[in-house]
Amino acid sequence: MSVIPDRTFAEVLKHTVKRILSYWTQITVTLGLLATGLGFITLYLYTRTIGRIDLFMPSIDVKSALLVWVVLVLLLMLSYLFILGATTWMFGWSVSLFSNMKDNQPKIVFYLVFPTVVGFSAFIGATFFLSTLNTWMIFVALLLIVFVACFLMYALTPFKRIIRKSTLVQARLERARLKRLAAHQQIKQKKLQKNKPARPKKACLQKWLTYWQAFKDKTTPTWLQLKEKWQRLQSWVRARKAFWLVTLVSIFIFVTVIFAAFPILLTIRSYMEKETPDTVPYVAGLSWLTLIFTLLPVVVFYCFKGDIYRRTFNGLIAMILAFCAFTMLSPGSLSQITYIAAQGLSVRQQTAERYALPEEIKLQDLSATLWKTRQVAAQKIEVEAFQLYSFGDVLLLCPKDMLSLELKELKNYSKFCISTLNSKVVRKPPLPVFARKLQKDWACRVPSWQIQAGRWLAWEALVPGVYRSASGEKKG
Fold first, then answer.
1. Phi, psi of 462, deg, nearest 5
2. Domain limits of the chain?
3. Which helix (H) or strand (E) holds 397?
């Protein structure tokens, strides 16, 4: 692909380490500023997502907690990048089928983009606009669409010449490999015959060799017929190598289209706005753009010149830029990442606990049914709540009923939460809950002997206003 000679891994590693050591101060300062900025941005996004931006400024003073927060956010971003890269890797494998034609790989990339985009469009259309169809029907339809697109491209475009040239080059390489293998085996046999002393054959061995020769003479015609049929089959397959190569390319493109389900799911989850009739077309267009951006690293890798290390570096940069484009197209993705990070660091808890609130909050300030309030001291009350935000000394408590809310709904209800400080709140362990014993049906009734005795003695008349039914239950 390039006239520049390929560098070895040792040379690349030595050159990279030398450059890092030369600019170590600048690199550390830049990374520190980027990490601090990322921490501030993601923390602001989380407070904005839950509708409490007023908690952002008091939280940024805790530098140690901010460092741990940035590390976890970066790990989650890498996981998102890995999920988005599923289609990237499969599309790269599709182009690598033509590794024997390095000079034509830039053209091949642009040719293969066509059926891939057609498959993406069909997948998005079936997902968002034809969701009533059966899953297997969608699967078969996508398979047919991808295969038809690939074979039409083979029949109607100059891609046919590339396919034929690839098969010829591969056949030439295969013949050269077989020649080298045969030459190597001949040399090996000569060495063995030269070093192996001749031994007289034993009588029993000579007898078995005679039987084996007779068996070979009898079965030789059959073996020759089988060999002739096998050679015919091989020639038939070789004559249709172009067909099999297009079929293999179609299979790889189809798997790439199926892997598009992961970026589409991420795009759907990252939509944080209110659902309207225009939501489905908007999210569908957003998903389509996201899938197009996932193909960008492969295009950059195969179209830019240089050795394998330089092109890999360019591809990684393109992947990071594609992820940045995804976050700009879908701002809710970063909110989703920060929300998962908050759950992982217990900034946002999943269960309700008991909290003794500071004396500034009075019993009449809260709704008893919403907060399950209880007076525990002369000036203190206890509530049942969960922690929606806790960073440093800043604490946001919300009622237990808000645990079931989705992320996009929190900003509408977080105004009912209590903003306080961790140093002023006492966390209490949950009270044990014991299951009640189920009472049997007869346990609530009067024994039968008492009913009969009551009828004989008529003691119900001694208690005014009380009588028993026929089943023995007391009634007033």
1. -75, -25
2. 62-160+242-339, 348-428, 443-475
3. strand 394-399
